[in-house]
Each structure stands twice: as C-alpha cells, then as structure tokens.
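>> received
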Amino acid sequence: MGVRRKTVSELRSRKWLGAPGAAGLHKERRIRQGGFTVEDYKDKPVIAILSTWSDFNTCHAHFPQRIEEVKRGIWQAGGFPAVVPVHSVSESFLRPTSMMYRNFLAMEVEEAIRAHPVDGAVLLGGCDKTTPGLIMGAASADVPSIFVPAGAMSSGHWRGHTLGTGTSTWVAEADYRSGKLNEAEWQELGHASVRSPGTCNTMGTASTMMSLVDVLGLCLPGASSIPAVDSEHARMASDSGRRIVEMVWEDLKPSDIVSKASLNNAVIADMALSGSTNSLIHMIAMAGRLGLELSLEDFSAASESVPVICNLMPAGQYLMEDLHFAGGLRALLGVIKAWLDLSAMTCTGQSLGEEIEGAKVWDDDVIRSLEDPLYPSGALVVLKGSLSPRGSVLKRSAATPALLQHTGAAVVFANHADMKARIDDPALEVTAESVLVLQDAGPIGAPGMQEWGMLPIPKKLLAQGVRDMVRVSDARMSGTSFGTCVLHVCPESRTGGPLSLVSNGDPIRLDVANRRLDLLVEEGELSRRRAAWVAPPPHYARGYGELFTRHVLQADLGCDFDFLARPGTTPDPEVY
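>> returned
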C-alpha cells in the first residue's frame, strides 16, 4: 500500500499564497517584486532553506554555494526554494559562549518555520551548536525537514604529522607552555591545522552531532561523513533538495521519523564513535522537543554494551576524511548492527536497516572490527555520588587509565578568572596527584556552561612532564579535547550544589569502575559550609542573558529552556 500524498490544497503555504482576496494578492505582488512569476510557485511546495552561514562562522564558509545546490534540487523536484538566514552560532567567535545561543537558534528556527509560508525546511548546519539548535527548532515546528550537514574540513599536515583540528592544537599549546615548541612553531602548527571550510575534522562535537543526526534518520544516510569540500558533498546537497520536496508530499515530519528506537540507536552509535561529551546534553534536549524520554541512565547503560570501534582523534589516530574513505558512518553502523533497531525510520522513507545494507568497511584500522576494538566498552561514562548527585560525565576513552581510580586533594578555583590568574603561579600548592576543581562554570554560573572543563595543567607540572590530571567542574569541554576531565557536575555550583562547597585540600575520590564521584568530607562540615554559602550575583539584568539565566535547565535535563523542553506545536498564525 503506497504512502498517501498531500494534495495541493493541503499545502501549508496555501494559507498564505492561496488566500482569497486582498491577502493572497498582497503575497503574490510581493513575490513578483522579487523577480518571480506566479508560475514559479503556483501549486508547488515552498521550501525554507534555513542557513546558519555568516562570515563569522568559517566552518560554514561553503554554505553560499551549497544553498545554490540545494535550490537546484528543489527546483528540479518541483518545489519553490526560499532562503531564510538564522543565527550562525559561531563556535569560534561567539561570546560568552555558543552554548548560550543554541536555545536562541532553536527558538528562531521554530518561529521562522511557523511564521513563514513554508511546507518544509532544509536545515544547513554543522558547527557544534547549530546541529542541535536546528533540530530542536524543527522538531518543535514539526514540518517535513531534512538536515544538510556541513561536513568536516580537510585533514591538516605539518612537518610530517597529521593534524586534527582542536586535538592537535591542544597538544601543541601544552608543548608551547612547557617550552617544547617556540612561538613561531606553535603558530605555524596552528595555521596548518585549518586547511579548508568545514567543521573540526576530529570526532569532536560537530562530527559527533552530525553523525548522531544521521543515525536518527534526519539527513540522507551517510551524509554526515562526507568532507565539506568534496564534490560528493555538493551532490548530497542537491539530493537533499530533491528529497525534501517528496517529504512534503508524503508529509514525513521529524515526529514521524524519530522514535525512542532511533534515540537508542544514536546513543549506541555515540559510544561506538567515542563521541563528544557534549552529545549527552544535546541529545537529551532534542529528545525533549519530541516528547521522547532520554536520560543520563540511557547513556550509562549503553556505555557497557558496545565497544569503541571508531579510531578517530581525540580517542584514536585518524580524522573524518579517513572515516569517509573507510566506508563512512553507514559502514560503522553495519559493524554494530546487532545492537541497533534496524526498523527505525529514516528521511528516505526506508528503514535504517535498508539504508545500511551492503555498506562495507574498506579500512579496518579506521573502523575497527568487534574482535579488535579501539576500546572494549563505550566511550562515555556517567558518574554519580556525593559530589554529583544528579550526574556528571567523563570521556573514558580519552582519559588516562591510571587516573580512572584516583583519590586526591582538591585545588579549588572559584571561577574561570581565578583559575586563569593562579594556574601558572609557581607558588600554587599542587602536585600531579591533586584534583583540580573549577567552580561557577555551569549553565547559570559561567554563564552558558562554557568549555572550560579541560583545565590546563599547571605550568610547573608541565615542566615536570605531567600531561594529565583529574579535573572536576560543572563546565563542558570541547569534543576535540582529551584528559581525565569530569564534566557537567550537576547540580551546578551557582545553584548551591555540592561542588560549591569544596575547599582546598578536601579529598575527592574518582571511581570510574563503580561510576562514583565523591567528596570525602563529613556531612556536619558540609552542613556548616552550606549554611554559610551565598550565591554570587547574577550576570545579567536584562535581555536574552536574563531570559537564559531564569529559564535554562540543568545539564542532566539538556540545558533547554523550561518553557520549551516539551512537545507540542503552536497553531499557525492567522493570515491577513
């Protein structure tokens, strides 16, 4: 039995463009003002191309050309394209942090779709927060939507070394601070690490989120692995334009594609990919917009069920370009298909199982076999205990194994400014066994839960050859980073969580085997500290900053806004 197809009269855009009388005539004359005729859009699905391009988002520098290729596909399939720019949420340039503006983008996407005469949407994103922001907004609007991932930049090279964006530059920064590289070499290496448009080419947050949206079925299968500058990427963009027109006629919406099974598949894939710690926050937020349950416990359970088979930096050796030519995401999913629900729907109208059928691994060092995994169990672990009663996360596959069971005395920094001022002070009382603790870096405290969780190793320890320590914070860290960093401690210190009560010298125990993070201080002493604790003043007294501070949820709930983290759509506006 075939899929029922919409009729022209059922197109949402007809409420605007087919309105009787003056209302419809007004829309017609304004489209003519843009150089189009009635025949260009008459009886056709109108497709919004939501673009996160800007000159400040250099990861998306190729989007103006990709927009033209998406348009080509839409025209060919009998649709009418309309570009709608939305916030670019640049990871590199936006301050105080792009994380503050993920929800801003999600709100803008939802409202842009609802307020315009569109029947479907093409979502162009990739840089870290654009992917979840676009998906959150499109899920809430719930019109047919397809994601076009930006793709990763080309691999970097310097003096015979392959460079991964972020990962290699973090290593180089430590080498520069310790005196192993001079300033000219440090700068030269950094410049060599960014060779083209596209997102970070490691399995950082951008690559992770594009891959997980691919697993969810919201982009053309395998699109997430294609390098940004490859001609295949341009063809994928046109294919996406053609497909979205068909999705409109089929009325295939995000709520029809993404299910609990899809989410479980994405969580499993996240573990096999050794994905970014940021994925937990974004996936929970995306699920909430669709009314689907996803919690830290889901990630915790998946962590023990599937090995890491993706040998990419920062946990491994290779880069996204290598993954693509090794068979891409489809081949990787084929290796772990025993853990997946292959009946899950994709935007093609076919099941995940049908879409990965026949995919092959062409390099079994990049995509490892189950018999030869990079790591025997999942990359990410969720920790709870007296220091993080609602949970925290650690990327086990990028940590130092000897530090996964560790007890050390806390060296506490009250906030990021305090850390910057003192971390390299020769008088800082710190040893390699210490636990570095950063407070006031959570969703409200930072503000925006900045990527400060990979605290730098104190300079005097770098000089001694120390390259990793246990670090604990309510912050996030870049998905390109590595180290024994406990992140997202929840509830955050700004709200009076246990992290706010830690003092210098307090023993902290990290016990990854038992999934524990504990502050080893007697309850009586903690009660005295709690009674004396005073919350710092708010960062904002107006504007979006105040809105964010008042309404952002904690990390274990996805850091969405409390008034948006639920399903349900707002009725279309009245057209006049």
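>> The chain has three domains: 8-155+195-356, 156-192, 380-536.
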